[in-house]
Structure formats: C-alpha cells, structure tokens
Amino acid sequence: MRAVLLTSLTALPLVLAAPALADVPRVAVDIAPVHALVAQVMSGVGVPDLVLPPTASPHAHALRPSEAAALQGADLMVWVGPELTPWLADPLGALAPNAARLGLLEVEGIRRLGFRDGASFEAHDHGDADHDDHAHDAPDHKAETHDDHAGHDHAHDDHAHDDHAHDDHAHDHSGIDPHAWLDPANAALWLDVIAAELSRLDPDHAATYAANAATAQAALTTMQADIAARMASLSGGFIVFHDAYHYFEARFGIEAAGAISLSDASDPGPARVAEIRDLVAAEGIACVFVEPQFNRGMVDAVFEGTGVRIGVIDPIGAMLEPGPALYPALLDAMAQSFEACLAPS
Asked: Going by C-beta distance under 8 Å and a sequence separation of 6 or more, which residues neighbour residue 47?
C-alpha cells in the first residue's frame, strides 16, 4: 500500500505537464517541505526557487550568493513566516521589495500549536493556540504586497522585539510552534491557498494550478489515512530531543512524553537530565528521537543503561532530494522512523 501511495505522489510532477504558454511568476520558497508543495501546484507551468537548502537550519542562517539569487526579483515569496525564519525578512525586502508574500502560518483554518514547556509534557496536551492571539491586521490570508506588509508584526525591524524573537543560536520555544508543515491537514489547506495566489498573479494558468492542487490533495488524503493506520498499531512512550514534531504527533495521536532539550541548539542542564531519566523509569519510555544533524553523544550518555532505543527523525527533509516528491517522502520517512522505534517487539 505504501509503495502505491508514494508512486502516485511522486508521479505528481507529470500531471498536467503541458508547456507553459506565457510567462509565469517567479516564486521563491523558504524551506524544502513548502517548496515541494509549491512545486506540486506549479507542475507543468513553472519551477519555484528554493531559498534554503534542506541541510541548513531555518532558524538562523546567512544567505549565500546562490541562495540570495533565489530571492532576486521574485514576484511571490511563499514562506512559513518570520516565526520560523526571522532573518529572512530583511533580505527579502532588499532583494525582492515588490514581491507578494504568502505567510502560511497566517492561513485561516490551519491548526496552530504552541510549544510545550518543561522536560515532561502533560498527556494529550496539544497546546492548540488561540487563533485570535496569533491574528494580524490583515482581513484575509491572501499574499500581501511588501508595502501592505510593513504594518504587520512581520515587519523587519520590529520582529526582533516581538514574542517570536530569535537569536543567532536557537529559536525561541515560546508562542506559536512554526513546524506546521508536519501536519498534512495543514498542507492540504495550503495547497488551495498557494493555487489561489498563483492564479491571481497568473490567471492564464489558473485551471492548471487548481487541478494540480486538487490532485495533490487527493493523494495527501490517501497518504494521511495510510499513516494513521500505521501509527495506530504502535505502543510505548517516546521522548524527543526538542519539541519540533508536535504537529505530526497531534495529527496521528502519538504524543511525546517529554523533550530532552529546550531548543535545538541548547544542551540540557543536570536537573533536566535527571527529570528525563525519572520520566523514562516512570513511564516505560521505549524510544528517544534525534535529528540527523545532532551529535548523538549527549543523548547516548543520558540514556545509557536504560534500554531506550534511539531513533532519527528528519522534520525538514535534510536527507531528501528537493522537489515535488520531497513532501510525501518526508511524511513517509517520519512514519517509518516511528514504526522502527515503537513497533511492538
């Protein structure tokens, strides 16, 4: 079943692959999973530019010239938002001052979660964020022009002082969790919004954008059901290195028991390590998940002698080839990681 699903999803770039009949918008996209969604919608019409390579941290990054070129003269920027990449607003304003901006965390109807606090999480605490707390002044969630955008909390200079501020080393784990692409239901809503914005900028290809979005949504719905069935058979608690997978957990009902570290760039103190080890003993934790770029030495030391398995989750596609097939491959790889670490013995 999984092979059939992936085949249908990875074949998506061939859908409606007729030659483009007119100039299409230049589209820049922040991260690889979102780039994959935009590429699916633009299939047969154009190819979006990816700003960040999958191996780069979205939370703090210095643009290389080749990456800056993806922004130069863009007509549309599709990004999760400054909550994920606060450093991107200034280069975007300088290199593509007239680009429309589509911030996906602002899309009406998506699920927005807050970060979970503490080394241990409360059971079934999804941390759903109040939409009104996160809303900006815009009456709807269509892409905004640069001039209109300046009055919002996303403004370049103001962002350094807001609740979502980041520093050069780690993103702030308070407020809205920006890893919203890990919920495929959010991605399904984004496909419609991406198609609508592309159609506004390029009405000649509106029918193609809409058809591609519908095809991608249908495949995503099937894949979501498949993953849900696979996750339903898993047992045993797990811990994450830091709170980055909540959207996937909440969608498929496999909540983490806690997190080793507060953020992706900080090591836990002795008190937090002791709390985690107590949690492992009390809750029968079976697995801890790390990310490919993390040094496992500290994790191995924390769990030495506990019998806890160590698994790897790649939430941004660092190990995958960018392109339209990356998003379904990312979801499937995450599901496989959970299966390998939590499947009954």
From this structure: 39
Threshold 0.85, pTM exceeds: no
Instruction: Name the residue type at position 282.
Output: A
What residue ranges in the chain does DSSP mark as E strands?
A: 27-29, 49-50, 76-79, 100-103, 237-240, 258-259, 285-290, 309-312
- End-to-end, the C-alpha distance of the chain in Å comes to 23
Contacts of 142 (CB under 8 A, 6+ apart): 102, 193, 196, 197, 200
Both tokens of residue 223?
């894949």
Question: Rounded to an integer, what distance in angstroms lies between the CA atom of residue 243 and that of residue 155?
Answer: 26
Distance (Å, whole) CA 269 – CA 273: 6
Q: Token pair for residue 182?
A: 């890990």
For the segment 142-155, what is each residue's pLDDT rounded down to a tens digit? 444 433 333 333 33
Q: How many CB atoms lie within 10 A of CB 146?
A: 15
pLDDT tens string 267-322 = 666 787 788 888 888 888 889 998 887 767 778 877 888 888 989 999 999 989 99
120 CB contacts (<8 Å, ≥6 apart)?
257, 258, 275, 276, 279
What crossing angle do the helices spanning 326-342 and 2-10 adopt, rounded to 10°?
160
Residues 6+ apart with CB under 8 A from 336: none
What is the per-residue burial (b if ≥16 Cβ within 10 Å, else e) of 263-292? bbbeebeeebbebbbebbeebebbbbbbbe
Instruction: In whole angstroms, give the CA distance from residue 333 to residue 260.
Output: 22
